[in-house]
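Recap from last week: sequence in, structure out.
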Amino acid sequence: MFKTHFISGLPRSGSTLLAGLLRQNPSFHAGMSSPVSSLMNGCLEQMGAGSEFYTFFNTEKRKAICSAVFNAYYQEQIDSNKTVIFDTSRAWSSRLHQLVELFDDFKVVCCVRNPAWIMDSFESIYRKNPFDYSRMYSPQTRQTVYSRCDLLASHAGVFGSAWTALKEAFYGEYSDRLLLVDYDLLTQFPARTMELLYQFVEEPVFDHDFNNVEYEASEFDGQVGVKGLHTVRKQVSFSPRRSILPPELFKKYSEMAFWQDSAGTSASCIVTKSDC
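Predicted structure tokens:
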């Protein structure tokens, strides 16, 4: 038997770094965002009321098919005796009501970061690839840092969609399943952060090598036209620097860190300036 947990949260907040650390444990499987949530959602669309096949399915059959999709995708890891599977997708934050029906005693590790630094990170990558126009932006939205940030923060944007999904989970009825992990604390105090994470998922602590983390997905990054999107440095470290965002944008997005107020949630948190 194997246990199932999930990695979710905000983009540019350490989920790839976290996966690189977790996969050092020979009993664990973890990786970058997988297609599992999209595959399950596609199946549910085909079995839903908008499909001509709706009458062929009942609730139990839909649940069985979703479970089969997950198991089939991870069969290789199951066969190689992995005892803990971490599936990564920012969509899971908005689908806890489905996960509780499919998995026993799962936990969701949600990576967070000051939203201003998330925007700064996206902007830094954009400027490092001045002659590669990625699929992240249209000709209209890539014009200035203001239009690029507006797109990212919209409800359908990469950051905005993840932010609203996390907020839904943070204040929802299953918030006790969540552990929020702040990127700054993960990079400044990796050993203590990982120790607390292991306690949360109720697994024996593993001696990680924080000076030799390996993770790269250059083929995937090349397909979307964003070089270095999922590349992590070998050494876990915190590198303070000045933001390249205009001051008013930095202030605007810094105020979106709702998880710094623990009222109304049962989530566990490893975050800065919080009572969680």
